[in-house]
Amino acid sequence: MPLAANQLPSSANYRIQVGDMVDVFVLEDNTFNGTFIIRSSGDIIMPKVGRVGVQGLSLSEAEARIKQTLQANQLKLATVIVDPGTRGETEAGGLTLRMSGEIAHSGRVTIRPLGDAPVSAYQAVIDSGGFKPFANKKKAYILRNSPAGVTRINVNFDAVETGKADDPTVIEGDCIVVPKKTFGL
Questions:
Q1: Sorting pLDDT into bands at 50, 70 and 90, what band is 91?
Q2: DSSP structural state of residue 10
Q3: How many of the other CB atoms lie within 10 Å of CB of 155?
Q4: In the chain, what are the domain boundaries?
Q5: What is the pTM of this model?
């Protein structure tokens, strides 16, 4: 079942995605330990091991994959722990989102929460530099990955700005899309 706009993912349904960071611990040899970012190719690069594909895996599946790789090439026995360590937080303490379309700074951005409050879609756009002049703020949407697939959450930023609609909460990995206005159609 798709996540509601204000739900946070639980560790039970967490799947590793590009841009996430994971902590890897190998109990038998700490030279393999480290914090790794999932590269655009869907893998991590571990010292003395090389590339290990982990995108789309659960934490336990990633542990099994890394264990298998280590036992095939490096260790007779490997006990591997994978933790989402810094998921949702960067060193500066923020939420990593992707922005697309008529937003001043598109691409991957880090948004810092205001106190303990969750980050809203409008806050994320404003913190990313705001809307471009031809942004269609009424037809914006959030794309959210979940185990059930991609969920689209429609957002009318015009209504949010005037207080006529709620500003949905965004979570780690969401993509906010603001299309361009179409004229003459």
A1: very low
A2: P
A3: 27
A4: 21-83, 95-178
A5: 0.51
